[in-house]
Amino acid sequence: MWSEIKGLLLMRLFERRKDKSERLNNIEKNGVELIAELKDVKKILRKQGILIEAFKTDVISRIDKKEVKELQPYLEIADNFFHLINSFKEWQELSRGHSEAVEIVWQKMENLLSTVGLEIIRQEGLSFDSKSHETVDSISNKNDSPVVLKVYQPGFIYMGNVIRPAKVQIGDMPIIDDKPIVDACRGESCD
Description:
By secondary structure, the protein is of the alpha+beta class.
């Protein structure tokens, strides 16, 4: 009888071990499948992340292009004012009072442009910057540190990005009384 009970107990123990072994095998198999599925999901998420980033960049680019198009009237007004003032200067030398009045109007124009995120590039006497200036003419003897001598067409910066570089003449810093003109004018243009 003990041997029958012992036999039954051993059989049940063996069956339980076999069930446990099968369950462990199933768990291991399911774990491997789950890991493989997680790797696939991770790949898909990476691809979707790349696609979403590309979509975001495209949308931002389109918005920026649309916004720049909407800014066209501001650019035209600033261009026209710049060329009007330059034509006055070419026709006749502006008096000190007229020059001050023009500068006041420029300040108001720049304030208006800044409300829509625009900055105008029109200063003469500054160091040449290839990001914001496009050289049209050069009269420089030494090309190590040219300055902007004349602005032919103003440039514009929108939200920190140059949307049109200023077309300029570059050259060496003019000297008056052994001082560069920029120093003599306290960092401003000496028109």
